[in-house]
Design a protein that fits this description.
mainly alpha, two-stranded parallel sheet, elongated, 2 strands, 7 helices
Length: about 200
């Protein structure tokens, strides 16, 4: 039985078909992996919110002792890391506690769709696409409005953790530069009619 030889055109067509098939399979696997990661992320954000609440409520039950909170985290860490690993170290438990205190008005679910406005009347769910590492960065922002702005932009633009950090750092540097320029301009050409107290306050800020 003779083997059928493929012509050059047939080989080219077969190679093209193989590449297209590989791309489709790659797309399926990438999509499945992203969905799996998102599912895990959603579960962990919810879990950390609940853990933070448990810690805060337990601290409130033992608030008659000044050192109770610190000892509580240390004890929890010793028992939990043996079973669940270093993700529940005392240091990370402090972050988890802070996470709940920062977002205690949220619900521990994650929305399927993004809304650019946060409702002040009802509790807001967490935004999609934001990991625990993102929230670690967001918690460093002291002003709630600024923190909400970066959270929305991060979810909308699908920023990586590095990109979020760059955006926050860039904004902080711009604010400092703007503030320095304002002070320098005011110092070089002060208002002659301004009172001494006003000049001191403006310069110090």
């Amino acid at each position: 039985m003779s083997k059928t030889k493929l012509t050059i055109d047939q080989k080219t067509e077969l190679s093209k078909t193989n590449k297209e098939c590989i791309e489709r399979i790659r797309s399926i696997l990438t999509s499945a992996r992203n969905k799996a990661l998102q599912t895990v992320n959603t579960a962990m954000i919810s879990a950390y919110w609940h853990i933070g609440r448990e810690i805060v409520e337990e601290e409130q039950r033992g608030n008659e002792r000044a050192d109770y909170g610190k000892q509580l985290l240390e004890n929890l860490s010793k028992q939990l890391t043996a079973e669940f690993g270093q993700s529940l170290s005392a240091r990370n438990l402090r972050h988890i506690r802070r996470f709940f205190l920062t977002y205690r008005e949220r619900t521990p679910e994650i929305r399927n769709t993004l809304c650019s406005k946060f409702s002040k009347k009802t509790k807001t769910a967490f935004l999609p696409g934001i990991s625990w590492s993102h929230y670690r960065l967001l918690m460093r922002i002291p002003k709630p409005d600024a923190r909400s702005f970066y959270e929305v932009e991060c979810s909308k633009s699908k920023w990586s953790v590095r990109e979020l950090e760059r955006q926050i750092s860039s904004s902080s540097k711009d604010c400092k530069t703007s503030s320095s320029n304002s002070v320098a301009t005011y110092t070089s050409s002060p208002d002659k009619n301004a009172s001494p107290s006003t000049e001191t306050t403006s310069t110090s800020t």
